[in-house]
Amino acid sequence: MKINKCLILWVALMFLTACHHRTIKQSDTTLYYNGDIVTMQGDAPQMVEVIVEKRGKITFVGDLKTAEKQFSQAHRVDLQGRTLLPGFIDPHSHFGMVSNTMGQVNLNSPPVGSVTGIEDILSAIKAYKINNDIADGEWIFGWGYDESQLQEQRHPNKREIDQVLPNNPVYLQHTSGHMGVANSMALERMQVTADTPNPEGGNIDRISGSNEPNGLVQETAMYPFVGNMLQILASHQAQYFEQTQDYYAKNGVTTAQDGMTDRNALAFFQSQADAGKLKIDLVALAGFSDLDENLKDAELKWKTYQNGFKVQGTKIIADGSPQGKTAYFTNPYLTKVASCDHDCKGLPSLSQGTLNDLFVTAYAQDNQLFIHANGDATIDMVIAAHEYAAEQLNQPLDKDRRTIVIHAQFVRPDQLKTFQEYNMEPSFFTNHAYFWGDVHVQNLGKQRAYFLSPIAAAEELGLKYTDHSDDTVTPLDPMFSVWTAVNRVSRSGQVIGEQQRATPFQALKAITSHAAYELFDEELKGTLAVGKLADFVILNQNPLTVGPMSIKDIKVVETIKQGQTIYQLLESAQ
Ligand SMILES: [Zn+2]
């Protein structure tokens, strides 16, 4: 953890730009002053003049006069009017999946990427081969293209890809994760030909008037391509580990999450941590299919950081996504649902019985649960499982277990009240208001859509809600999440539920103090208080005072983990 990156960074930066306020530390104490230092303590914004860090921890929070007297030898950092906050704590994303994207060409459309047509896809993959010096015959992968965002309104096909990359097998994964496009060499390698029948539950798309595959493989037909891709990317895991941390650090995140981790990845993360390779903290949620095996594994130390890594609890997936119409609701969708004729409410991923058993097993061992649940009918099932397990085990319903409902996007007001009674907490996903808000209004009607990820209602009940990106589903960027929570503006400009708009302070609590609480880290992190870790983010502007629509343009200037600078924006970019 305590890698002195500052010196290396400083030397590197010296050749590029003058390092304006960082010098090599002469002392083990650093005093930050002359900026908006927001403690994130209490119910309203509190600012202090000075924060002092000593050997990785916060040793003083208060006024300049006292600090100067008490810490006269301290190294001083002039914030030059910038804003210092506790380092952002990621309430839910997928570190491992982000890491996989490091080995793929980014083919997302704006605002995530810059692809607007098939030409852009072709030039991006061609450039990737050249820039990364990829030999003929080696696989090239892309991710995130969305045909509905392309001028052509269709998928690219194998012939187009063959034209730019005839000598490499290429597979491009669609943004939905349910399909992808392969070129001729990739189809050949995976032995998909005109004679290959469609697998059950899948489709190999054909060139019209023939049996020849056109490159598009859907659902189960895509599995071999994805399996091959994951296997190849896994062999580069260690190489992408540092890049992935840099991406989190660049976004001001000092504690990242891997939101569903299998046993191999748990072992890999711990090995990286033990080798001193973590610059930030990493929290994993173990996958529920391994629950029994994990609970028997004496090597697994739950809820305890070991060299910056901890396994906090278990992740359960209880339904699908609202935009994919696979989230489970008590009332039907208002638009056509694939392979459903009437009363289409979506489906849960697990039966009530299975969910009940998982809760009993986890609660019996005091294992913290994080349950992916989007629709209100699924949330009813989660509440029922909680009640069942508490009764079976003869435990109080409001025991401090902090069961977290991940997404909780279409939670009802009565369910929020139950969360409060049972000490359960929601982790919301307000980025949906921007990315799919318009779609939710069509599919679910205004009443349900406008109550999505209701921070204002949760605040009224005193819940410790968080707000996440679910990266790779939407970009990690915490300032963007604050922007969506505060504005709730959709792609088309529609306000998705004005009454549920968060204040900027509430939106910041959702990625600092509340996020620490949901991970049982409130003694260590989340606010600027004496004794806590010196995990800070410095922003070029204050989210509490800029115009609400400008929040997304705020830049992370510097990220500090336990007193060490782990990211710094080049001066020329500030
Ligand atoms: Zn997730």
What do these coordinates show?
With 574 residues, the chain is α/β, with parallel strands linked by helices. The chain has 3 domains: 1-87 and 527-574, Urease, subunit C, domain 1; 104-233, Diaminopimelate Epimerase, Chain A, domain 1; 237-525, Alpha-Beta Barrel (TIM Barrel), CATH 3.20.20. It has 20 helices and 22 strands. A hairpin with an 8-residue loop joins strand 1 (29-38) and strand 2 (47-54). Residues 1-23 have low confidence and may be disordered. The structure holds zinc ion. Zinc ion is lined by residues 92, 94, 259, 470.
Report the count of strand segments: 22
CA(first)-CA(last) distance: 28 Å
Number of discrete helical segments: 20
Strand content: 15-25%
Q: Share of helix among residues? A: 25-40%
- Helix/sheet category: alpha/beta
Structure ligands = zinc ion
Search tags:
alpha/beta, eight-stranded mixed beta sheet, single chain, Diaminopimelate Epimerase, Chain A, domain 1, 574 residues, 20 helices, binds zinc ion, eight-stranded parallel beta sheet, Urease, subunit C, domain 1, TIM Barrel, 3 domains
A few lines on this structure:
This protein folds into three domains: 1-87 and 527-574, Roll (Urease, subunit C, domain 1), CATH 2.30.40.10; 104-233, Diaminopimelate Epimerase, Chain A, domain 1 (Roll), CATH 3.10.310.70; 237-525, TIM Barrel (Alpha-Beta Barrel), CATH 3.20.20.140. Strands 1, 2, 3, 4, 5, 20, 21 and 22 form an eight-stranded mixed β-sheet that branches. It has an eight-stranded parallel β-sheet with strand order 6-13-14-15-16-17-18-19. A six-stranded mixed β-sheet has the order 7-8-9-10-12-11, with helices on both faces.
